[in-house]
Structure formats: C-alpha cells, structure tokens
Amino acid sequence: MKLYRIPIVLGLLFPLLISSCDDLLDPKAETKLTEEFANISYSNTLSRSVGLYSYLPDGLSYLDGAMMASASDEAEFTLETASIHNFNVGSWNANSNPDESAWERNFEGIYATNLFLKESDDVDLDYLKYDPAKQQDYQNRLNNIHRWKYEARFLRAYYYFELVKRYGGVPIITEPLSLESDLSAYSRDSLAACIRFIVNECDSAATVLQAPDRMTDVANNLGRASKGAALGLKCRVLLYAASDLFNKPDEWAPGYEHKELISMQDGKTQQQRWEEAAAACNDFITSLGNKYPLDEYRLIRNYQNSEIIFDRRYGSTNTYEKTNYPVGYDLGESGNTPSQNLVDAYEMIDGTPFDWNNPEHRANPYANRDPRLAMSILTNNVEFKDRTVEAWTGGRDGKGVIHASRTGYYLYKFIDPNLDLLQNRTSVHHWVIMRYAEILLSYAEAMNEAYGPTGNVGYRLNAVRALNQVRNRVGIEMPAVPSTLTQEELRERIRNERRVELAFEDHRFWDVRRWMIAPETLGAPLRGVEITKISDEEFEYKPVEIEKRTFEPKMYLYPIPQADLNTTGWPQNPLW
C-alpha cells in the first residue's frame, strides 16, 4: 500500500511571492510580509490540525448508507445490492472486503498525523516572539500548537486502534514517509506492542488535553479531542485487550504460527488484564465522571448531550433521514432496519425478559417494554411524523411495498423526525464515537470479570452499581439488577445491557467478536416479525426468519489486504 502525502495548499502563499522587487526592498513592506507569512503559517497549521479529524469514521452511513449494525444481528440493510450483505453471507476475503477502505483510511490518518507532528514545530512565530507588544498572542499560539500536537497523538492512537480491532498487530509507524514509500520495509508489530503503544499515547495526550465544559465552551472544543477522549479510548483498548478474542487464540486459531499478532503475548494473565481495564475505567469515573453526567437517552442525537465524550460532527444534512425514514414516508428508503433479534433483547418494564410464549407479551409485544426500545426503533402502529407507522402486510410501510423493511421495524435512533424531506429541510447531525454510558458498562464488565459482581478493591463502584447507574438514568429508570447474581449471570446481564444501550453505535459487531460468541449470534438466522392487521387497533404478530447468516472462525479478524501481502511478505491472519 502506497501512502500519499496530503498536499499543503500553497495558493495562500503565492501572492507573497509575486510582489515587485521594489516593494520587497521597502522596510514597511518587509515588516508586512513577515507578519502575513507568520499568520498564514499559523493559520495553515490550524487548518491542518482540523483536517486530521477527517479520517474519523462516518458511522451514520459507514458503507454507502449502511451502518455496521447491518453487518451484525442488530439490523438488515434494505438495499439488496449493498456490499454490506457480503459480511452476512460470508462472501468476503483478502481480495474483496466490504470494509476494505478502513485499511487505507486509517493508515492515511496515521500518516497525516505523523507529518503534522513533524512539521508543526516549524511554524514561524518569530514576528510575534520579538515584538514586546505581542507576547500574549505569541504565548497563546505556542499553547495552541502544543495542544494540537497532543490532539494529533490521540487521533493517531485512535486510528491505530481502528486497525488493531480489525487486523490484530500492524506496523507501528511514527515518522512521515516519503511520497514513494510503501510498507514493505516494515513488519507487523505484535498485538501487545500495538496495545502498549496506543495506551501510552492516550496517557501522554491526557496529561496535556483538558476536559472542556461542553455547555460553556462549545464553540472552541466541541468535536475536538479532550482528556476525556484520551482516557476513554484507553478504557476501550484495555477492555478489548482483556477480552477472550485477544487471550484465547487456541480456541479459534490453534495451528496459527504467529500468535503474537493476534493475542496478548506479554507475560500477563487475562485476570491481570481485566484488573488493568477496571483500573483505567475507575480512573475515568473518579476523575472525569462529573464532567459527563448521563443525559436523557432520548436526547442522544443532540450534539450538546452532556454524556458525549467524543463525536464526529457533520453539520446540517438530511442524508441519514432519507436513508432510514420508513418507505411510506416522502423520500424514505427504509435503510437500516432493526431485527427481531435485537427487539427481543429489550426487557419488560419490570426487568423480566420478553417472551413470545407469553400470550400477553405476544398480543401486544411493544407495550410495557424498556423505554429505550421506543427511543431506538419504530414499531408497528407507533406515531411518527404525521401518522402511525403501517408495518403490517399491506400497510404503507409494510411487506408488499417495494423497498419496505423485511424485518417489520424501522430505525429511530439518531433520526430527526421533524424534517420535511420534500422541502429539503436539514438539521445538525453527529456520530457518537464515545459516551459516558460506555465507560460505565466497560467498568461493570471489567470489574465483574476481575472481582465478581460486588467486589471493588477500594473503588467507589462495584460491577452491579455501575450497571445500575446506566439502567436508572432519568427517563429510563429500569429496575436495579440485584447484587445476588452470580458472576456468570451478571456477565449475561451486562452483555445484554450493552446490546440495548449502545445499539446502532458500532459496538455489537465488535463485542460479539471479542466475547467469542459470534458463531451463535452473527451466525444465527436474522429474524423479523410478520404483522397481520385484524382491525384498526388489533394486530397479530408472528416472529419469522428472514435471512440465514454465516460466521466462520476466520472472521474474528479481517484478512490483511492481499495486495499488501504480495508486496510485504507479511503473514496473513488465521484461516484466510
């Protein structure tokens, strides 16, 4: 893979180079030229620091409108020709991967940050440095450049983890490469080395970056990396490093000769890794938890939601609504349609499981459910915009209509229901990359694995209490999980809580892999619901299988692109 330098726009400098010789010899012109050059140099550095964020994932329409949820048991993408279906039927390999752009995009992001880190030290601030009247401006600019460099280091760590969770160990490159360079001069570093590098970068970034007050410093900091983002990424990385996939290679790739590339071969036990993950999450909770209080779940699409730690902003658009509005609404394309597999995971309001064999549940399957169901998924006969959703067979949004949902459900999470698409109305959107509920759930998981449901080794929260903080938030208020559960029972409750709380936020695809339960989740048939209208207020609901899906052990990690193997000689990932 060739890595191409992002060109620096030189057009801004060109006017400075065409001044007349007489002008350039004029002392006043020389002073003006120096000042303009300094300002342009600084402004260009600012622009380039912002550009480093452009490699963040576009989670709302990751693969041509499809979310990664539609490559998991959360959803089905309606457009049958979309490449994301290849994940579900097992039709992907080293030459053809629906998510193949992740390899180049993240390496390009790493290269851009490396180049920025090298060249940001060369910003010309001498005009300010030697002017006694501009010392404050000089110091402010120095501070800004220093902060941007640590934002870049965080972003580089983030891009590296995006690679590691897909491919395992990859080359750690910290210097910018030339235009002609490729990766053949580098080897894949071990998974443990990659994890260590990412964690160290997060620690370094956290010492410089601040935790901004999102409500009072929105203009300057919203969307930028912060101390919270750095420590939050550390929590996520250590959670993955402690999970089964990166600790039990013999259970899925017993004959692989390069286990250091796919598992943590660092001399520590899995128990120690769970303890490290718990400690990292505890550090976040105790030092920053008050900065990101849990907000109302229904407000998650609001980019000023208090619990959001890191996100990607889009500006004003309606693409997400066009893709995902129900098919019977103006310009709606159905898009990512939630599965019955996911809907069944939402508990009853009393905390008991939903059960199709219970006549009361079956007769009215969406009544008295966890409030997050209605806040995430449009079900039949629910009010949406100017009418009710008609997901029943023969309805305006039901089977029989071209491009209608095959599952019987439509997506509501992150949707703005107030847009008039015919008038091309738009609203501000953002993709939530990290929020405080994830930290609490990661803490609950790590604590339960390390110390059991109620152990806390001096920490303020145990696993059960952390889990219940998420369940008891304002507007949700689900019953508390009891502290009498066994470790195995609590493990299942935590996993289900992640499933419903973080639905459609690009966690499920990776969670079932790191837990090594993908064969029974991603490999199980995808289910929907068949709805028959009896009367205006009475419907009959029947769960049905809509698609057989495939998962093989080799799919726990992506294959390294074949074109790069051909030029580097690297070992391929197991079983590909």
Brief write-up:
The protein is mainly alpha-helical. The protein has helices at about 20-25, 25-50, 85-90, 100-120, 125-130, 135-165, 190-210, 220, 225-240, 270-290, 320-325, 340-345, 360-365, 370-375, 435-450, 465-470, 485-500, 510-515, 520, 560-570; strands spanning about 75, 310-315, 335-340, 375-380, 385, 385-390, 410, 425-435, 525-535, 540-545. It has 20 helices and ten strands.
CATH A-level architecture of the largest domain? Alpha Horseshoe
This entry's quaternary arrangement is: single chain
Radius of gyration, rounded? 26 Å
Q: With helices defined by DSSP (H or I, 4 residues minimum), what is the helix count?
A: 20
Element-by-element helix/strand order: HHEHHHHHHHHEHEHHHEEEEEHHHHHEEH
What structural class results from the helix and strand content? mainly alpha
Pfam families: SusD-like_3 (PF14322), SusD_RagB (PF07980)
Protein name: Carbohydrate-binding protein SusD
GO cellular component, one term: cell outer membrane
Keywords: Cell outer membrane, Membrane, Signal
Walk me through the topology.
Layout: H1 21-25, H2 27-51, E1 75-77, H3 85-89, H4 101-119, H5 126-129, H6 135-167, H7 191-208, H8 218-221, H9 227-242, H10 270-288, E2 308-317, H11 319-324, E3 336-338, H12 340-343, H13 359-363, H14 371-376, E4 377-378, E5 383-384, E6 387-388, E7 410-411, E8 427-435, H15 436-451, H16 463-471, H17 487-501, H18 508-514, H19 518-521, E9 526-535, E10 538-547, H20 562-568
Antiparallel strand pairs: 1-3, 2-8, 4-7, 5-6, 9-10
Helix pairs in contact: 2-6, 4-6, 6-7, 6-9, 7-9, 9-10, 9-15, 10-15, 15-16, 15-17, 16-17
